[in-house]
Write a structure and sequence with these properties.
Largest sheet: 4 strands, antiparallel
Order of helices and strands: EHEEEHEHEHE
Shape: globular
Helix content: 25-40%
Number of helices: 4
Length: 133
């Protein structure tokens, strides 16, 4: 994993999210100035970490054929001080649970905060789960 500038990271994550049919599950921040941003050498996957240990914007570009990317990213994030994250209930909450995170708080879905291009028919209205190590 390599550290990259926030502007570079944002370009990489925007490309990845635009190619992925589940891209709405990934939050793209307006500005990554206050985050440490990391990507693979290829730039096809990455994540950012806030000063308080919040792991955000975990992504994988569909062009990547690498397996086990979540293990790589979250393992690296933990090494760099990542200790909490939030996600939609379902696949992601199960994945992060397997990687050592436990649910701390749960918020019911609220349509007014729905991600742009959310697919209600396919993805429903999952709770938002805040998780910590």
């Amino acid at each position: 994993m390599i550290k990259v500038e926030g502007k570079v990271f944002k370009t990489m994550i925007q490309e990845a999210v635009s190619k992925n049919s589940h891209g709405a599950f990934v939050e793209v921040k307006e500005d990554y100035t206050d985050y440490e941003c990391y990507t693979s050498e290829t730039g096809l996957y990455g994540m950012a970490i806030a000063k308080d240990g919040d792991i955000v914007s975990v992504f994988k570009n569909t062009d990547s054929q690498e397996k086990g990317v979540a293990d790589i990213l979250i393992g690296f994030a933990k090494e760099k001080g990542g200790k909490k994250l939030d996600c939609f209930d379902g696949f992601l909450s199960k994945l992060y649970s397997k990687l050592g995170f436990k649910e701390k708080e749960r918020l019911a879905w609220d349509d007014q905060y729905a991600p742009k291009n959310w697919n209600y028919e396919r993805d429903g209205r999952p709770d938002v789960i805040m998780m910590e190590l």
